[in-house]
Structure formats: C-alpha cells, structure tokens
Amino acid sequence: MSTTVLVVQGTAERAGAERVLLGLLANADPRRIRPVVAFLGDGPFASEVAALGVEVVHLPPVGRLRQPTGVPAAIRHLRAAIRDTGADVVHAAGEKVALLACPAARTERVPAVVRLHDGPAPWRAPASIGVQLVAAAVPKTSVVVPSQWMAEAFFRRCRLHADVIPNGIDLARLPAPGSGRADVLSATGWPADAVVFAHAGRLESWKGTDVFLKAAGRLIEDPAAERARFLIVGGALYGRDERWAAGLPALANELGLGDRVHFTGFRPDALHLLAGADAVVHASTRPEPFGMVVIEGMALGATVIASAIGGPSEVIDHGRTGLLAAPGRPETLAAAMHTVASDDDLRRRLGAAAREAAERSWSAATMARRWTDHWEAVAGGAATRTTGSSAA
Ligand code: GLC
Fold first, then answer.
1. Is CB count within 10 Å lower at the N or C end of the chain?
2. What is the pLDDT of residues 272-328, one digit of tens each?
3. pLDDT tens, position by position, 344-368
4. What's the confidence (pLDDT) of residue 392?
5. 325 lines ligand 1 (CB under 6 A)
6. Which residues, in sequence order, are CB contacts of 126 under 8 Å at separation 6+?
7. CA distance 15 to 22
8. Is the CB of 20 under 6 A from ligand 1?
9. C-beta 16 within 6 A of ligand 1
10. What is the Cα gyration radius of the chain?
C-alpha cells in the first residue's frame, strides 16, 4: 500500500526550494508514495506541480503570519485537507508553513515532517525560533535539512535534531551540456573561444556577486586570462537588496570590465544559459544551506568554483569535481578563476568528473529514494526526535 504524503506549500516564487520539490515529486515512485500538494493560495508554481500529474489542493491564502487573523482558519482548512486526502504524513515545505501544518497534523494525529531550507542564523533568528517552538510542541515531528552544515548549525544553536537528506537535481529535465552556448554568444557578442564564467542566482548581497565582479576585475589584468568573460544571471527577488543589486553594473564599470561582463537580469530559463557557460561561480559570503546552482553547474558539466563554507563544501571534492575558494575574498577567487581560465585540460577534467558525481550522488532520483524511505519510516511510527543531547 502506498503512503499518502500531504505536502503543504506556500505561494512561493520559484527559487531553489521549489526546484527541489519539483524534482522530488517527479521522481518519487508512485507505487510507494502518493503525493498531494496543498497550496496556501495560488500562484504559477501550482500549475507547474499540477503539470507533473500530481494531485493539487488549493486552500485559501493565509496572509502574513505577523497579522495572524487567518491562522485558525488556515489550520482548520489544513485539518480538513489531511482528512479528505487520507494523509499518512504531513510534509511542511519550509518553516512558515510548518507553523500551520504541524499543529494541524498534531490535532489530526498524523506525523509531520518539516523541510527546512534556510537558517538557523542570527539574521534569521525569529523564524528559527518559530520552528523550535513547533518542534517542541509537536512531539512527532521530524526535521529534515539538506546539508550536514545545517544539521550541525541547528543543533548548536537550538539543540534541534535534524536528519540530512541532500538535494538532488532532475537530470532528465536539464538542458544538454553546451546547448545554451549559441544563445549566450549571440546575446553578448563574445567570441566562440570565450571562457564563460557564470554567476547565477538571485542578486542579494550575501550571494557575493560583488566578490565575483571584483575577482573578474583582477582576472582581466592578466593577459593569460584574456578569453575570460563574465555572465551574471539573476535579479533581485522578494524585494530584498534591490538598491545593492541596481548598483552592480556601476561596480562592473568602475572595475573596467566593459563588454566582458553581461547582466541578463532574472531569467526563467537560467539553466539554459548555464548550459552555455564553461564555469559556474558560487561566491556566497555566508554559509549557503545547500546551493542548488552548484549541483546544477556540475550536472551541466561545468567547472564549479564555490565558497568553501556550508553546503557547497560538502558537495565539491576540491580539485576533483570542482574548486573551493575562501569566501568573501576576491583575490582568492580570482586565483581559482585564473587556473580555470588558463588551463583547458583541467577545466575539461573537472567538468567531466563533476557531471559523473552529479549523476551518481546528486540526482533527484537518489533524493526521492531517500525521502521515500524517510516518509515511510515516519508514517510507520518510527521514533523521531527533534530535541535531545547529541548531534546527528
Ligand atoms: C534555499 C537555500 C539554498 C538551497 C535551497 C534549496 O534557497 O538558501 O542554499 O539550495 O533553499 O534547498
């Protein structure tokens, strides 16, 4: 008999966490799992989920949790959804929906899983405290995070025990390596032998786009790196850091990058553009909880250079499947980029090993198997412990 998992999802914009969920839903074995996704409100992401053939339930939007007038109603709707779908497990996609989904699951006596994508960190303290409260109040809650770094951070900061299930990438839905090349060259006017370094992601100050630009500024001083070009794919999202993002082209100008840098703005087909890059640079200055673009770049056979902190440092085997560089230091990043720009063989070797590692270890199929085992264990009443005295 299959396990019915009611995934509770907010009206998210389609960022990393949503790409992970799509890959998970598309790859879960229907003989073992019947997923149903309940959306609190409507949005384009709901149609993407429905397009996979997954059952979708629309619940009324809740509004902001800081004005909690809608909370009791939302919990009531969720309880009805748990009963109507015959859910065996409630899967809260993120900390905010957990505040609603966990109490609803508890009242209906169904175990809950909370999937955390961010935190804990001083700059996100309120949300982390919320999750802590929920975990303490709902005894049968299992918390799952995508990296060991996150599990350790949650344990250190709030004595919260979390299981680790790393994210995976849906290889079947990925563009073919190299397929975006012609579009990148025609949009930029760069020569065919350009070594394209791409920085992809939302433009938010901790993502280190400025560090990437400053590293590029150092690189262009060296004639050995004359083929290097710099592609920035992404825009400000969620209304955060908009002024900072708007200032990046001016910084590129000051650094003398001229037409060797190109800003595409937000692009829904970002992966297509990445499939035209030789290298993908991830320059976050704070620990990235996971960093989807790292495994996406790897799966596209690009050479990935990432900050040596957080999730990416668990994914990249330095010198074999990519390179790690100290965070927040343009000169260190520039040195790694220089090696990549001036050594075609190294680039090919790292790219091929990265693709292989992505297929073997970071696929959505592997992730879906782990999740399926976890959901079944939780549904079967396996003991879950969210607070305690030892780390994962
Ligand atoms: C969040 C995290 C990011 C992670 C993604 C998917 O956006 O900031 O690191 O890759 O969720 O888990």
1. N
2. 999 999 999 999 999 999 999 999 999 999 999 999 999 999 999 999 999 999 999
3. 999 999 999 999 999 999 999 999 9
4. 37
5. no
6. none
7. 11
8. yes
9. yes
10. 21
Output the CA 147–ligand 1 centroid distance in Å. 10
> Tens digit of pLDDT for each residue in 20-60?
999 999 999 999 999 999 998 777 889 899 999 999 999 98
Tell me if 10 CB under 6 Å of ligand 1: no
pLDDT for residue 389 is more than 50: no
Cis ω before 175 (30° cut-off from 0): no
pTM for the predicted model, two decimal places: 0.90
Measured in Å, residue 224 CA sits from the centre of ligand 1 at 35
For a ligand 1 pocket test, name from 24, 124, 150, 292 the mutation site with the most ligand atoms within 8 angstroms of its C-beta.
292
- Position 215 scores a pLDDT of 98
Q: Which atom of ligand 1 is nearest to the CA of 15?
A: 7
CA–CA separation, 35 vs 89, rounded Å? 10
Strands (E), the chain: 3-9, 33-40, 55-59, 89-93, 112-115, 141-145, 163-164, 195-200, 228-233, 261-265, 279-282, 303-307, 323-325
Please indicate whether residue 117, judged by its CB atom, sits closer than 6 Å to ligand 1: yes
